[in-house]
Known about the structure:
Structural class: alpha/beta
Largest sheet: 6 strands, mixed
Family: Belongs to the threonine synthase family.
Distance between the termini: 65 Å
Strand order of the largest sheet: 8-9-19-14-15-18
InterPro entries: P-loop_NTPase, Ser/Thr_deHydtase_PyrdxlP-BS, Shikimate/glucono_kinase, Shikimate_kinase/TSH1, Thr_synth_N, Thr_synth_N_sf, Thr_synthase-like, TrpB-like_PALP_sf
Oligomer: single chain
Helix content: 40-55%
GO molecular function, one term: pyridoxal phosphate binding
Organism: Pterocles burchelli
CATH class of the domain at 50-219: Alpha Beta
CATH superfamily of the domain at 50-219: P-loop containing nucleotide triphosphate hydrolases
Pfam family, one: Thr_synth_N
Amino acid sequence: MFHVQYQPLRPITQTSLSGMCLKLILSRPVAFAQLWKSWFSSHSLVGNKNIILMGPPGAGKTTVGRIVGQKLDCPVIDIDNDVLETTWNMSVSEKLQDVGNEQFLEEEGKALLKFSASGSVISLTGSNPMHSAGMQHMKKNGIVVYLDVSTAVIMNRLKSMKVDRIVGHCPGSSLKDILQFRKQFYKRWYDIRVLCGEDIAAEVVAEKVLDAVKRYQNSELETFISTRSSRSGRTTEKNSHKYFGDVVTEGLAPDGGLFVPERGLPKFTAGEWQGLIEATYIERAQVILERCIHPDDVPASKLAEIIGTAYGENFTCSKIAPVRHLSGNQFLLELFHGPTASFKDFALQMMPHIFAYCIPRSCNYLVLVATSGDTGSAVLDGFSRLHDTDKQRIAVMNFFPEDGVSPIQKSQMIGCQTENAWSVGVKSDFDFCQTAIKQIFTNSDYTGFLTVEYGTALAAANSINWARLLPQIVYHASAYLDLVHQDVIPFGSAVDVCIPTGNFGNILAALYAKMMGIPIRKCICASNENNVLTDFIRTGVYDLRGRKLIPTFSPAVDILKSSNLERYLHLIANEDGQLVTQLYNQLENQGHFQLRKDLLEKLQQDLVAGWCSEEDCLAAIHSVYSTTGYILDTHTAVAKVVADRLQDRTCPIIISSTAHYSKFAPAILRALRITEIKQNPLSQLHLLSSYSPLPPVHWGLLETLRKKGNEDHQVCAADMSMLMSHIETLIQNNFM
């Protein structure tokens, strides 16, 4: 273990610093410049704060601390050598043998409580975080950096170091058990996590620590811009930059564009991804989202609490998003184990808690959402799980096409209503509902009126909200890591993904996972008979002229205007907001636009597309059930048909199973050629259940239909003034 003798530093006052500077300027001007550069580098990064390295024994805290200290030219303190052994006048191992595990932790904590330093790099012991008071004392003047090394790697390191006992180790407990037990304490205290792979050099870890500390102290670098903002406008408009908390609460940019991170998404190294292969879904989500959300916006500890709440008891499968082999090289990513049985739960069990944390306490908020079927119930369920104090200042209004969702989807949305969460059926299609919400958001006179008259601001919960997209990146990354964990592929081998696509959010999240380092080769966009996206990806022409929305068995992708496509076009156009504005103005005014040839070539490097007829959708459900006993929902069947046509079978293909078949019982019963179909949704589910299907009928749907299936809801015409009237009524009922 590297030994650093720590001696308390005499404070440098302005007078003493001036005297030192004057002597050096006169005698050794070059030395003065070097001293000033070193001091400024250390002071600007650390100031009076300490960098506190935390992690299990064998994580490399001492060695990394020494390197970081050298780079910053600041004191380095090793708690083991420089504090504990000096205080106790004996080695740590002797003390442990002398007093035993419990007393050792107490003695160690007492030593921490008496310790103070500033502007230093401090390496904690592996057991320091288990003493609450001691760690609270250390955090008061420090940034805690968690060197996250997998348990398997630590076990190998300790074995090579011939360490066979650590604090807490006793007869009947294994070293591995103790290391796993300690993780809960590390996760409680850290401000920053640094992922450390098996073969990563200490120098590289030290650089990662410095980069992480710089990021922690420079939240102003992680700003968001509109997809329609010009480059010149970004530098001249003071308020053009937004932070994560701003974009969560505002939803849509003032110019009608969508928010995207100005510097793009973080990239993970292959080693960092490999370090997550053994991790649980919740652990993967924590690591990925920490890198996408600055701790100034949501601290790591709060983010962990939100993720734990979102994916804890609310999901019926312990794996959260399991990957199941279907046949051949095809795998299903099951995204329907949440409370409302669709992939929307992954974002909407998290997003309400993030939203409640980010919004200012001085204002009430009405969250507006348009749904083509699944989003509505997921939003209503997610916001219903907030604390009562948050519900008092947050209300939800869900607009859905009255005749454009399945009977069970409608029953869900009606059943999920509460005092502050309403569902309104609109006598139109999803595109009208979504466009209406966008127009309401960009109507500054109306939003200003709501703020002044009712003290209420509007927010969005559709995938136009950035907080909706981030959690979806996680399950695409997790699916790939699961295939590696199952020994289907080695890390680095490519996969294709096939996703039923309407609003382009889910497939965009897969493209983002690819950008962050997941080896996805092609994203296959699967459309139903509303195949505007398929035509666009094949030709570069987005053409709505003469198109009418066709109601299908897969209503969640019955969409002609794909909102999140705008984010992808902004990406491949090198953030040319003026071009994006031009394209979408043309779409709005003329009903079509065409991509330049170079942009179409870029797009086709990432995407291929196909579409599926209604007949082929039902035939696929019947065929898969006949051969495997597994029931696909209608959207997954669309993706299955397209995957069969477009895959080249040179790599695995992951098909996103975006909803549980229970939500579309009439279509499923028809596909399975069951002639006796009852009108009551609950009876339909019971009939499906009698076939002992795989997977079983969704419990959450059964519960919703049993408890609240007959409640009423409001219906209105496809008229903007009517929608606004409903909005004001809900605000008056809840906030006045």
